[in-house]
Design goal:
CATH superfamily of the largest domain in chain A: Beta-grasp domain
Largest interface: A-B, 52 and 56 residues
Oligomer: heterodimer
CATH topology of the largest domain in chain B: Aldehyde Oxidoreductase, domain 4
Strand order of the largest sheet of chain A: 2-1-5-3-4
Strand content of chain B: 25-35%
Distance between the termini of chain B: 65 Å
Bound molecules: FE2/S2 (inorganic) cluster
CATH architecture of the largest domain in chain A: Roll
CATH architecture of the largest domain in chain B: 2-Layer Sandwich
CATH class of the largest domain in chain A: Alpha Beta
Helix content of chain B: 25-40%
Number of helices of chain A: 5
Largest sheet of chain B: 8 strands, mixed
Radius of gyration of chain A: 15 Å
Order of helices and strands of chain A: EEHEEEHHHH
CATH topology of the largest domain in chain A: Ubiquitin-like (UB roll)
Number of strands of chain A: 5
Structural class of chain A: alpha+beta
Strand order of the largest sheet of chain B: 3-5-1-12-9-10-11-20
CATH superfamily of the largest domain in chain B: Aldehyde oxidase/xanthine dehydrogenase, molybdopterin binding domain
Number of domains of chain A: 2
Radius of gyration of chain B: 27 Å
Distance between the termini of chain A: 46 Å
Largest sheet of chain A: 5 strands, mixed
């Protein structure tokens, strides 16, 4: 079976694919041990498995791994700098946006991609971005607050 | 005494694990010698298995074994033993497992599962609980009534599909209704719904070749699970070890037991191997537990002045193929359908009915949303009939000091203050006038009040183990499952406060492991912070006692003279001579090594005292150990052209006794309200003409997104001290969901004049009702 190359959180890996329908999420979780990428639905509807592929948020449960050949990937494990949390991670904690935490990694990565591209994203853009994610615990109030807080902190950083 | 941590928005202790992706959930766990399981499910709602061939599947690459139910004689349960872990010769719902393929990789298991051949002889299927309860309906279980069960509490009716009937007989409803000036009566429906915790269910199980069972599971009830496994396989409880990592949400869907008996049964066929099963989302819909599913009727009678005098209700729950996880929901839905009101006369029949759907289990609110949906709507209707504002009618009948609930229990002041809750909500919602109808929108305002009491085993308790270290840091070990509700954080706050120590010195054990963590009933009924918190306070008090006792040996003085201030012990007369807590942690060691005193390791146990099961005849008794009350109101806007409903403002006020953490409690309320909006406005498990569920993934089964969140939340609290709870706190986890449906439907009535009594109310329902109204 084919092999692909991925650069994940700065490290390059060559990976054998078990079959040609393997999804990126399976590679990250099972081959690379990056289990911070969560699979909540497997059909692209909940956003839990969101990672950045060449800087773009993608649901890794639907993306065929072979289509990501050669890509640079950022997962939740690559967000903090060692033991120093990224300001977005801090903002999620401060805003009380984390309950069970299953939706959290995907949300943090999506927030990062939005704010990197649009540091002054308006509230409408934030809501638009959050539409891609389901959270059953928080009722979204604190998540919205966390993204706004992230925007503030990344601007002042 | 001023409090340092209670009432403060302390950051979550599990937060860093969760924002970095390091928090382990069951799907993240891999153990050596592990096989992956794929379940072959019935696909038909009710049938006899004519033939089952696994030969081809067994020959597929990587396949280790295919397990079927052939020869399986096990029925599992906790109070009603009616369910085999895997179908034996008959399937009773479309998601029922008929075979499980074990292979080296998930992909191999999936490919092989497609090759399992099953032939069925269809049987008539039933989805409607009212139809299924009728005499002469086809039976799902011919053995109903003769299954092993706890007869005092599970009342099965042999020869029917009613596996449990709870009856409440309080006073004389006939006389009550005869004396009533006004009566309202309606039929209601609360459909089957899915919990939709974002983490799908999973379990890993190994039968060791030495005869032990090891399990990792996404489960809220590890000790119940352990008992069930011991009973299934007839091995001592002590030979079973259950470990629970973080749970990605539970909402009741992971309580009691769910997929674990299946995984264990399969693992028992391959001793030495671990078997891992993680459900796909579709499988969570069809092959785990679902919730609600009530069809009912309620009637309320009142005097002219608004005093309630009688309530009569009948509920039929579509509880699916098996009844063990739903019978207590049926009971509590029955005795608490009165809502937070006094009715001197009540007659309630609440029936759990076998139907051909996945089994129903606990779901946030546990019967209260179903029963109080009816009461909440009828109170609104009654108020209109009486020409009284609904708030006044509620005030007239609220449970309060000296009044009695449906069970006949007398309410005390410490149980909470509904009047104050109502005042706050009225004020918050009334501060903004409701806009008048315009070209595009109708506007409406609605309100409902709620109560919830935990339904629990009468012997349910929590135990905390505390260990002080020589550096003065403290371990607390308690088997409360952290599933997002924030119990670990609340526990840390409670311990820090009780010990007067900096919270950084407190460390909760993270993973629950039945081999090491103290026995605990289960993490359900919003009881963890309440019951576990009390256990922690007791353990802390004992630790302080031991510290003072150790210090008194060092000082050679009576213990009464020793003071403790969180950092050290000292003698009142010699405050300068301080013994730091760490130096007393393992007894006190003098310079020459001589050691006096006792290592500071303590336990604390708390059980709500005096709880009994309801009397089998009257349904009354001391069945509830605590109450939490609340009131909610909403302003909504309905787009005339589309029927779309927007929630402009959602106000809640609860009386949780004491707010332990204002950030996490707000998260519980906002989350519960939005989950309740899902039930009110969109969620329903739909079945096709073939009896198979159709909307079995996110998307087709729509749950609230950020767009469905209210434009504005008011979230307030009244804190009526409850001396039973830790720092006077009461349960508050499920509560925000209970009154959402009646609140929203009352607002829809206010906006449109239409009385909806069936959930959910979707835009197309509103449009149709508006059109029908115009046509008249
Ligand atoms: S798991 Fe990928 S979107 Fe849900
Ligand atoms: S925090 Fe649990 S799903 Fe979002």
């Amino acid at each position: 079976m084919a092999a692909i190359t991925l650069k994940v959180n700065g490290t390059t890996h060559t990976i054998e694919l078990e079959h040609d329908r393997v999804r990126l999420a399976e590679i990250l979780r099972e081959q690379l041990g990056l289990t911070g990428t969560k699979v909540g639905c497997g059909v692209g509807k909940c956003g839990s498995c969101t990672v950045l592929v060449n800087g773009e948020p993608v649901t890794s449960c639907t993306l065929l791994a072979r289509k990501a050949d050669g890509a640079e990937i950022l997962t939740i494990e690559g967000m903090a700098d060692g033991a120093v949390l990224h300001p977005i991670q801090e903002a999620f904690l401060d805003a009380g946006a984390v309950q069970c935490g299953f939706c959290t990694p995907g949300l943090i990565l999506r927030t990062y991609s939005l704010l990197r591209a649009h540091p002054t994203a308006d509230d409408g853009q934030i809501v638009e971005m959050l539409r891609h994610h389901l959270c059953r615990c928080t009722g979204y109030e604190a998540i919205l607050a966390a993204v706004k807080l992230s925007r503030e902190r990344m601007q002042s950083a | 005494m001023s409090l340092r941590y209670i009432g403060k928005g302390v950051r979550r202790v599990d937060g860093a694990d969760k924002v970095t992706g390091q928090a382990m959930f069951v799907a993240d766990i891999t153990v050596p010698r592990m096989l992956h399981a794929k379940v072959v499910r019935a696909g038909v709602p009710h049938a006899r298995i004519v033939s089952l061939s696994t030969t081809e599947a067994e020959g597929m690459p990587g396949v280790h074994k295919v397990v079927t139910g052939q020869g399986c004689e096990i029925l599992f349960g906790t109070c009603l033993w009616d369910q085999p872990p895997i179908a034996v010769d008959r399937v009773r719902h479309a998601g029922e497992p008929v075979a499980v393929v074990l292979a080296l990789t998930e992909h191999q298991a999936e490919e092989a599962a497609k090759k399992v051949k099953v032939e069925y002889e269809p049987l008539p299927f039933l989805l409607d609980p009212v139809e299924a309860a009728k005499p002469g309906a086809p039976l799902l279980h011919e053995k109903n009534g003769s299954y092993r069960r706890v007869e005092y509490i599970v009342h099965s009716e042999a020869g029917s599909n009613i596996f449990h009937r709870y009856k409440l007989r309080k006073g004389d409803t006939e006389a009550g209704f005869a004396a009533a000036d006004v009566v309202v009566e309606e039929h209601f429906e609360f459909p089957l719904s899915a919990h939709c915790a974002l983490e799908p269910h999973g379990a890993i199980c190994r039968f060791t070749q030495g005869g032990d069972i090891e399990m990792w599971a996404s489960n809220q009830a590890p000790f119940v699970l352990r008992d069930v496994l011991a009973d299934m396989f007839k091995i001592p409880v002590t030979r079973i070890r259950v470990r629970i990592p973080y749970l990605g949400g539970g909402f009741g869907g992971k309580s009691d037991v769910c997929i674990e008996p299946l995984v264990a049964y399969v693992a028992s066929k391959v001793p030495g191997w671990a078997v891992k099963l993680v459900l796909s989302r579709k499988e969570v819909f069809v092959g785990s537990l679902i919730g609600r599913g009530m069809k009912g009727r309620m009637k309320i009678g009142a005097r002219k002045d608004g005093t309630f005098i009688a309530l009569e209700a009948e509920m039929f729950f579509s509880d699916g193929a098996y009844g063990d996880t739903s019978w207590p929901v049926v009971t509590v839905a029955g005795h608490n359908c009165t809502g937070p009101f006094e009715f001197p006369n009540c007659k309630v029949d609440s029936c759990g009915v076998y139907t051909n759907t996945p089994p129903v289990g606990a779901y946030r609110g546990y019967g209260h949303p179903e029963g109080q949906f009816m009461a909440g709507r009828l109170v609104d209707m009654l108020a209109r009939k009486l020409g009284m504002p609904p708030a006044d009618l509620m005030r007239k009948n609220f449970l309060c000091e000296g009044r009695k609930n449906g069970l006949g229990q007398e309410i005390k002041r410490s149980h909470g203050d509904l009047f104050a809750c109502l005042d706050k909500v009225e004020k918050a919602i009334g501060a903004t006038p409701l806009p008048a109808e315009d070209d595009t929108y109708l506007y409406g305002r609605g309100m409902a009040a709620m109560m919830k009491a935990p339904k629990m085993a009468a012997n349910a308790s929590s135990t905390a183990y505390l260990q002080l270290s020589n550096d003065g840091s403290v371990f607390i070990n308690l088997s409360g499952i952290e599933m997002g509700q924030g119990c670990q954080t609340a526990f840390s706050q409670i311990a820090a406060e009780a010990l007067k120590m900096p919270i950084e010195r407190i460390r909760m054990y993270r993973d629950v492991d039945t081999q090491f963590t103290p026995w605990e009933w289960q993490t359900v009924a919003s009881m963890q912070t309440y019951r576990g918190g009390r256990a922690i306070v007791l353990a802390c008090e004992r630790a302080v006692e031991l510290l003072r006792q150790n210090a008194s040996l060092v000082f050679d003085c009576p213990m009464e003279e020793v003071e403790y201030d969180g950092e050290a012990c000292f003698r009142r007369s010699l405050p300068g001579n301080r013994l730091p807590v760490g130096s007393l942690a393992r007894g006190y060691m003098f310079g020459n090594g001589l050691t006096v005193g006792t290592p500071v390791q303590t336990t604390g146990t708390y059980r709500v005292a005096g709880v009994t099961e309801p009397d089998p005849e009257t349904g009354m008794g001391n069945a509830a150990g605590s109450w939490t009350f609340g009131v909610q109101a909403a302003d909504i806007r309905i787009e005339k052209a589309t029927g779309k409903i927007d929630v402009l403002h959602y106000a809640s006020c609860f009386d949780p006794g004491r707010v332990i953490n204002p950030v996490t409690i707000r998260g519980q309320i906002a989350g519960g309200v939005v989950q309740g909006l899902g039930a009110a406005l969109m969620e329903k498990l739909e079945f096709g003409a073939n009896g198979v569920a159709r909307n079995t993934n996110f998307g087709p089964y729509r749950i609230p997104t950020v767009d469905d969140m209210p434009d504005r939340f008011t979230i307030e609290f009244i804190e009526t001290p409850n001396p039973e709870g830790p720092f006077c706190a009461k349960p508050i986890g499920e509560h925000p969901i209970v009154a959402v449906a009646p609140t929203i439907l009352n607002a829809i009535r206010n906006a449109t004049g239409v009385e909806f009594t069936r959930l959910p109310v979707r835009p197309e329902d509103v449009l149709e009702a508006l059109r029908r109204k115009e046509g008249v």
